[in-house]
Amino acid sequence: IERSEERGVVVKEIKNEKDLNDYHKLLKETKTKVGWNVNFEEISALWKSLKPVGFTGFLAKLEEIPVGGILISHFNKQIFEWGVGRSELDYSKKLYSQDLLKWKIIEWGKENNCDYYDLSGVNPSPETDKESKIFRYKKKWGGELIQYKMYKSKLRFGYC
């Protein structure tokens, strides 16, 4: 966190469409590497519909250049992390924006009377090196692993 700040990274809450577009570009840069299509219109619609009931996000910037971003939902004193975006600049310059973002979200959560920050998802039995690294990264924050059951249902829509 201190290294990130010493390197000039600053974090601000997402407030407008420009910020949301900057976040989208980071998310797209991150997710296209794993084959996910990230559509700005879907993110914007999600933002507009959930913002009034507990949804916000944070951008990390270096000299006004976005290098990291995280969206969060917050409800019932709990914060849930959504789509993490990180630029190649963040990786190559070792800016550690994700650590600073999480710390600023924790500070924001304290100011907004939140009790829990759910880092949202790991494989408790990692099968790849990447999964192991994600699990190790999230463990370093000192939380505990809580396993939830996942239920899936098939909804079918048709015409009568």
Describe this structure in words.
This protein has 160 residues and is an alpha+beta fold. It is 41% helix and 22% strand. The chain has a five-stranded mixed sheet with strand order 1-2-3-4-5. Strand 3 and strand 4 form a beta hairpin. It is globular, with a radius of gyration of 17 Å. The relative contact order is 0.15. The model has no long low-confidence stretch (mean pLDDT 86).
- What value does the average pLDDT take? 86
Task: Report the β-strand fraction as a percent range.
Answer: 15-25%
> Which structural class matches the secondary elements?
alpha+beta
Total strand segments: 5
The number of helical segments is 6
Rounded Rg: 17 Å
Poorly predicted segments: none
Major sheet summary line:
5 strands, mixed
Q: Please tell me what the overall shape is.
A: globular
Order of helices and strands: HEHHEEEHHEH
Features:
alpha+beta; 160 residues; 5 strands
Question: Briefly, what is this?
Answer:
This protein is an alpha+beta fold and 160 residues long. It is 41% helix and 22% strand.
Write the layout of secondary structure elements.
Blueprint: H1 2-6, E1 9-13, H2 17-31, H3 40-54, E2 55-62, E3 65-75, E4 78-86, H4 88-92, H5 97-111, E5 116-118, H6 129-139
Parallel strand pairs: 4-5
Antiparallel strand pairs: 1-2, 2-3, 3-4
